Amino acid sequence: MTSNGQSAATAEMNGEQAIEQLPYPPSGPYPAGTANGHAPAGLAELHDTVRRIAGNVERVLVGKPDVVRIALVTLLAEGHLLVEDVPGVGKTSLAKALARSIDCTVSRIQFTPDLLPSDITGVSIYNRQRADFEFRPGPVFANIVVGDEINRASPKTQSALLECMEERQVTVDTTTYHLDDPFMVIATQNPIEMEGTYALPEAQRDRFTARVSIGYPDPQAELAMVDEHSGTNPLDQLQPVSDGATVHRLIQTVRGMHIAQDVRQYAVELVGATRQVPEVRLGASPRATLQLVRAARAQAALSGREYVVPDDLHAIAIPVLAHRLVLTTEAHAARRSATDVIRAVLHRVPIPHGDRMGRR
């Protein structure tokens, strides 16, 4: 990795890490707008399940509750998560811990330069007894797919995930196979300038709902990790605390979160503003608007509300939008990052106000 590339990647990762996160779901009275200060049945189940999953994951990823929260927001928003950081900070551990916390089908793909698209989607094999071809599903046929070091495979192989992630189906030999719900891809990658890696194409990055960078732990968290993890692997001790059917119900609850017209308009204006910044060569797509709204609904649900407010959009704007932007050469030369651009957009676009902005 070149020193300039490494410093730029580190600066952007630190910027994502500094995002202000709201606390975990409240255990006491709920905010105004919920019935009698109590959580509806769907939100109560969501909060209970999220606490158990988060507690499980934080046994493995010590001192990173904000990263765990973004992962849970992505799960509830029916999205896919890209974990990007330097080696050794727990990217794969985060993905594995989240997968093991849910009792559903899980598969892991180690991306390598010689991996083929059929190694991911599956292949049709001739059956001599039946005198016909039969389809043998690949590892993508699972509820949670962990793709380790996705940028070590060629773009041709990476493209095998495009249809899966967007349409939740796989087409092999003119036959389409639908994937089960829930379906989530959690991919890890090292910074793209490192030796032996391929940059993710824009179309691939755009299909990830959020990108998160773990960053190095603070000294206290690193000491706690040494004390607790040096003798045993916490992943070996994790037990599922939820299942696929429960997660599917929680996703339906998040779909029902109310978002007022003014807040929807605000989301459109935020994404549209990224296309008008001089430092940006390619702004966020309409797909980004949809995923921003879905993630905001999940953020609102985790915060104990039945409705979305602008703060929910602000809380997840950087993880959802920053990785989609392509900056100009001049912006790179000025050491401007996509995170800086999103922060500037959040400050520039007027925040909606009004009594009808939040509650039903």
What does this structure look like?
The structure is a single chain. This protein is α/β, with parallel strands linked by helices. It is built from 15 helices and 13 strands. It has helices spanning about 5-15, 40-60, 65-75, 90-100, 120, 155-160, 160-165, 200-205, 220-230, 245-255, 260-275, 285-300, 310-320, 330-335, 340-350, and strands at about 80-85, 100-105, 105-110, 120-125, 130-135, 145-150, 170, 175-180, 185-190, 210, 240-245, 280, 325. A 5-stranded parallel sheet has the order 3-6-9-1-10. It has a two-stranded parallel sheet with strand order 2-11. A two-stranded antiparallel sheet has the order 4-5. β4 (about 120-125) and β5 (about 130-135) form a beta hairpin. α2 (about 40-60) crosses α10 (about 245-255). The protein is globular, with a radius of gyration of 21 Å. The relative contact order is 0.17.
Write the layout of secondary structure elements.
Elements: H1 3-17, H2 41-58, H3 65-76, E1 81-84, H4 91-100, E2 102-103, E3 106-110, H5 118-121, E4 122-127, E5 132-137, E6 144-148, H6 155-158, H7 162-167, E7 169-172, E8 175-178, E9 184-189, H8 202-206, E10 210-212, H9 219-229, E11 242-243, H10 244-255, H11 261-274, E12 280-282, H12 286-302, H13 310-321, E13 326-327, H14 329-333, H15 338-348
Parallel strand pairs: 1-9, 1-10, 2-11, 3-6, 6-9
Antiparallel strand pairs: 4-5, 7-8, 12-13
Structure annotation, total helices: 15
Strand composition percent = 5-15%
Can you summarize the main beta sheet?
5 strands, parallel
Mean pLDDT: 85
Note the run of SSEs as H and E: HHHEHEEHEEEHHEEEHEHEHHEHHEHH
Helix content: 40-55%
| Structural class assignment | alpha/beta
Assembly state (oligomeric): single chain
Shape: globular
